[in-house]
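User: Predict the full complex structure for these chains.
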Amino acid sequence: MSEHRIEALAGVIAPLSGQPISPPSQDESAPKWVTTEFLEWFGELGIFFWRVIRAAVTPPFEFRELFRQLDDIGSKSLPLVALAGAAIGVVLALESVQSMTRFGAKSLLPAALVFSVVHEIGPIMTALVVSGRVGAGIGAELASMKVTEQIDAIEASAVNPYRLLAATRILACTLMLPLLTLAFDACGLLMGWVALATVEPLSFHQFIINGFNGAGFNDFLPPTFKTAVFGLIIGLVACFQGMRTRGGAEGVGRAATSSVVLSSLFVILTDVVLVKFIIIFFP
Amino acid sequence: MATIDQISIKLQATDAGRTPVVAVEDVYKSFGPQRVLNGVSLTVSRGETLAVLGRSGTGKSVLLRMIIGLQTPDSGAVCIHRQDLAGLSLDQLSAVRKKMGFLFQHAALYDSLTVEQNVAFPLQHHRNGMASSELSDRVRKLLAEVGMDGHLDKMPSDISGGMQKRVGLARALALEPDILLLDEPTAGLDPISSAEIDELVLKLQAEHQMASIVVTHDLHSAKTIADRLILLNQGNVTAEGTFQELQGNDDPFVREFLKHS
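Assistant: Here is the predicted structure of the two-chain assembly.
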């Protein structure tokens, strides 16, 4: 195998493993090597998740750390999520005005904005924003604790690190994502209305009446609560990548990067499945 | 390879003298193709301090991590109070760890917590009935014991390496362990700080009568604080005994090690 192919493969696999890559031996075929790495990573992730679940459901419960994480992940992400929501709301409104006017569907603008934000853009953008802020933060924090033996020190103090560090962060991500999504939706719709109102007069009351006309709970609850799954993925992948880090400062950097890359990737892939699931079960 | 029954018989046999609280029996450990421990055995009794010496990479720290269950041997047994760690559930292992204190090589203080919070950490998790004022008093007492009572609100990054080791030692003593494991307690310290740490370990040992295992490169420190020394070479125990006994040992490696230390 040429050096270039090995390097290219290492580039793909490095974020997955979170560890330095040793290239395959001469007699080892590249596809087999990639598959083995991939399956090993998923296997280890499964074992990690099982340990976290087992630690989370058995006492003592780490409520103090959970509340600290809820604050850190929830309230400290709120300004960023709100800002992203506001920006997306404005951009979406301005883009929609042009295209929908062209197709003679201007009267549907509020409904189009509400449905696109609440159904898809709100959940996925919130997850990606949180993945960037929180995923990188968790990955780097836990990786740093790992390489400086702080996680070993926790274990040596007879405290379960899966319970104290991983379960609390994963649960906080899972609980906070739907709430942050609501904040994103609210800011997006509010600023979307402001953007629409600058183009032509439209009261907020009228915007809400038109936008939510004919909408039911099935239009809002499943897309909002699917973000709990996104939160689970972000927390799980970031904790996993952080707690398996090796290799000093370089390892910490790699863990932070791979936490964001992998959690974003899995959020997008999971969204595909969940959208289909919601269409089938919540028509 | 020794079975648990054989180890128990051996432990009972030594009961006549001092009670061994740590027994490592015929332990092997490899990392990939590299064999680090190659059939190491040792026992440590209550009130005794054992120093583990050897060149870098001979598995001294790995041995210490196995004793507290942070790593598992490929074969052989590690017994604490006659309980083989290999057969323990996570809860049982936690119960065993509560009886042990561990000072890491670089102290491994929690960098987001203050000195006071670092020492309070084990107490907050394992002394649920303790009132906050009682917990605070206990933390202050522990920090006073290691001469760090004037630095409660400082962050680990704001204190020197020697001070970090003192705080690490206070944290290791928080649950009143009967086994103390020290990984390179004087590494990276100046001679005066090293001597202070040695004095501190001696003082704590005299007060608490723990079974202590000290991993070190520092022969002077080992000579000062240990009752008995073992010298590891290529994963094996090459020599064992008091410092004087080691000095009289004719093994070329022992002589070479002592000459350069």
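Chain B has a mean pLDDT of 86.
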